[in-house]
Amino acid sequence: MTRNGPPITFEDFATLAVEMSANSPCQKSKRGAVAFGGRENEARELVAVGWNHRPGGEACDGSPACRALCRATCVHAEQALVVSTAELEGADVIHAKTIGGVLVESDGPSCVECSKLLMDAGVVAVWLYLPTGWNRYLMAEFHRLSIEARRHP
Asked: Mind listing the pLDDT tens digit for each residue in 90-129?
């Protein structure tokens, strides 16, 4: 299938990740993720989108109890990509964290569960927004840093 129109840019995918975060019912911080294939000089294609949410569509009330359980009970945006059944082999993933609809800095690689799933799905790299802008982590580095973050909270 031939795609008409201008090439899809990285910025287009980053904007889409921010837009996907708006679907999150979380009251604390919303996360969106986009998987895309292709490199800078190739035709880039959208592979999948996801956002953080509670399983079964349960609402997030923003309470201290809800926030305390969030990491353990919510489906993370990257996990939503994996369960979407999209073919992630060879894709890059953009992770966007927003508060009040505004893109904010990520804390860096920190979720071992997500890194394991993305690595097993064949994802090549994960992009996070940091103080210096978007940073691309190759999957092995992202996984290693996530493990280190778990050891040193």
From this structure: 999 999 999 989 999 998 999 999 999 999 999 999 999 9
Is the dihedral angle over the CA atoms 148, 24, 105, 49 positive or is it negative? positive
Q: Three-state SS for 145?
A: helix
- Domains, the chain, in order of start with CATH, read 10-151 (3.40.140.10)
Cα separation, 22 vs 104, in Å, equals: 13
Torsion angles phi and psi, residue 105, rounded to 5: -65, 140
Q: How confident is the model at residue 2 (pLDDT cuts 50, 70, 90)?
A: very low
| pTM score of the predicted model | 0.89
Take residue 11 and report the two structure tokens written for it. Answer: 């910025």
Strand partners, 30: 98
